[in-house]
């Protein structure tokens, strides 16, 4: 037998070996645990977010990591996968929410030369045709430029499969106080018909006008509204959802969906088939909504911009598409059909965008339509923030867009684009 003196050192060695093995196993477990936690966090980040519960993109800096906020590279050509995905989302959303409707009047037709409004109108017709819904009549107001008796009679003739669709756009606000009071009056007049909405940007701040909207919309038995960006959807949630005050909670249903113009789908033909007349198109607003797009230092019309460096001098055309009268539709005899007029205007808008290699715009549908045709462009925000609200919700991951905070920054992106192009061409 071993003596106690000889046994003690052996036991001590065994103890130290066991302790060492325990330590390394524990360390491995800790590392593995940390690794698993990191993997789970990464997986959670990569999971698609439910847009109906996601927080407003403008409340988080996460969108700044998107490619469109990359300050070191220029925008590139094309965004087909994103466009296809957003078009599919519009279709799947409205397949669910327009069930049972076969005939529809639209409320909110805008007879203007704004090519973005025309693209919206035509896209609504594309969707309705796809859904097998017959368009019957349109009015913008109930008390002028509208045969209200005909409007009612058509709805009555097709009950219970008729409905009113509120046109999409950006006039659901209390600054241009013209279309919203018209909608309020229409909703009160037509309580016996379902009312649905194409996507809108919403900006309401005046208490009395918000109350008018709540009282009217909240009293309708079958009304559903649609937002085209997260902040607008949040406003609908706060006003008509679980936090509604003074009206039944969630009685006015509300959805979030991309802009209806994505029903045009990918249209690279306007980029590839349109004759290029200028290097840069500067499509800018000419109203009180001008903000980041302020460009008074650049003269209107055609001219040359010096971008410096390898980019050198480039040609530009600075305009607003409201100033461009669509040819053919006002000849004698004039085209009277709203669908035909809107289609012609939208086509001219796409061709304007396709006439340049590069676009700088502070118009939301300048951005959306440039994305549809895949032309590299820079987006600047408007005073009400609707451009970036939409962009941060849906199009921030599109490589053909870069966001700029000023015209000077937009010109720097243009310089990078034309420098890169000359390098590829071996100039």
Description:
The protein is α/β, with parallel strands linked by helices and 427 residues long. Helix content is 43%, strand content 16%. Strands 10-11-9-12-13-14 form a six-stranded mixed beta sheet, sandwiched between helices. It has a four-stranded parallel beta sheet with strand order 2-1-3-5, sandwiched between helices. Strands 4-6 form a two-stranded parallel sheet. Helix 3 (115-130) crosses helix 10, helix 5 (179-189) packs parallel to helix 6 and helix 9 (338-354) packs across helix 10 (364-373). The radius of gyration is 28 Å and the shape is globular.
What structural category do the secondary elements indicate? alpha/beta
Oligomer: single chain
Basic shape: globular
Largest sheet report: 6 strands, mixed
Tell me the distance between the termini.
Answer: 93 Å
Question: Roughly what fraction of the amino acids lie in strands?
Answer: 15-25%
- The helix/strand order is HHEHEHEEHEEHEHEHEEEHEHEHEH
Indicate the low-confidence ranges by residue numbers.
1-60
- Strand count: 14
What are its keywords?
alpha/beta; about 425 residues; disordered N terminus; six-stranded mixed β-sheet
SSE layout and pairing:
Layout: H1 4-46, H2 80-97, E1 103-107, H3 115-130, E2 134-139, H4 148-157, E3 162-166, E4 169-173, H5 179-189, E5 195-197, E6 200-203, H6 207-218, E7 224-227, H7 230-240, E8 253-256, H8 269-273, E9 278-283, E10 301-306, E11 313-319, H9 338-354, E12 356-361, H10 364-373, E13 377-379, H11 386-395, E14 401-403, H12 407-425
Parallel strand pairs: 1-2, 1-3, 3-5, 4-6, 7-8, 9-11, 9-12, 12-13, 13-14
Antiparallel strand pairs: 10-11
Helix pairs in contact: 3-9, 3-10, 5-6, 9-10
